[in-house]
Design brief:
single chain, alpha/beta, Undecaprenyl pyrophosphate synthetase, six-stranded parallel sheet, about 40% helix, about 15% strand, binds 3-methylbut-3-enyl trihydrogen diphosphate, binds magnesium ion
Length: about 230
């Protein structure tokens, strides 16, 4: 495992369920959409922190295939904010060390979002730092069904585990999952990839989650004994 300058072992692949934007805003008497705005800004801060800590892959859950059930006004906001926000920070991302990747279904996304995704992916593909995977219109059931369909199309009738990995949007097993805001469930996130993930739940709402809290979660992770079905180390 990678040990960084702060002398903590960091997970190779950190996944985060960014939850609690709405509750964070409500507590402050603000509209839910303002919580999403602050939550969006926090993705940039935590990605920078993860890169500095030496984490290789960060996969953040930003919009699920089930989130379309929300009121139209909120969905519309979530479907237009990334263009405005990531658009504003485009140059910052391109001039950083970070490799940007979208993971999830492209089908329902607008032409503008897809163009921004394609642009950021193309412009950052040779970067050497953190791989930041943004799960947007992502759901595990969809990911697995899409993978099986791809395999059938290719004529693979007896797939190996590796064939399945190769057909998924997210191709790395998760070491540590963090879910903010108190809920202790997966909400259709990375079911295949989390088989042996360590899980960390915090009551802190996503917009208030910061580098100090990230380090605290990683320190908890360091104390876990990962046995993978074997015996204690
Ligand atoms: C997470 O915050 C962001 C998305 C799901 C888009 P929520 O919007 O789920 O916030 P809460 O859980 O209602 O507080
Ligand atoms: C999970 O959060 C999805 C994202 C964070 C994008 P939700 O707020 O949608 O999950 P549930 O509905 O509480 O399970
Ligand atoms: Mg929620």
């Amino acid at each position: 495992m990678y040990i960084n300058k702060k002398n903590i072992e960091v997970p190779k692949h950190l996944a985060i369920i960014l939850d609690g934007n709405g509750r964070w805003a409500k507590k402050r008497g603000l509209p839910r959409t303002f919580g999403h705005y602050q939550g969006g800004l926090n993705v940039g801060r935590i990605a920078t922190a993860a890169d500095e800590l030496g984490i290789s892959v960060l996969t953040v859950y930003a919009f699920s295939t089930e989130n379309w059930k929300r009121p139209k006004e909120e969905v519309d906001y979530l479907m237009t904010t990334p263009i405005k926000e990531f658009g504003k920070y485009k140059d910052k991302i391109i001039n950083s060390n970070i490799v940007f990747k979208h993971v999830g279904r492209r089908n329902e996304l607008s032409k503008e979002i897809l163009e921004l995704i394609d642009y950021l992916e193309e412009q950052t593909k040779d970067h050497k730092g953190l791989l930041l995977q943004v799960a947007f219109n992502y759901g595990s059931y969809d990911e697995l069904l899409t993978a099986y369909r791809k395999l059938i199309e290719k004529g693979v009738t007896d797939p190996s585990e590796q064939d399945i990995w190769d057909s998924l949007y997210v191709k790395q097993p998760v070491d540590l999952l963090i879910r903010t805001s108190g809920e202790q469930r997966l909400s259709n996130y990375l079911l295949w990839q989390m088989s042996y993930a360590e899980m960390y739940f915090t009551k802190v709402h996503w917009p208030a989650f910061n580098k100090r809290r990230l380090i605290k979660a990683i320190k908890h992770y360091n104390k876990r004994d990962r046995r993978y079905g074997g015996l204690k180390k």
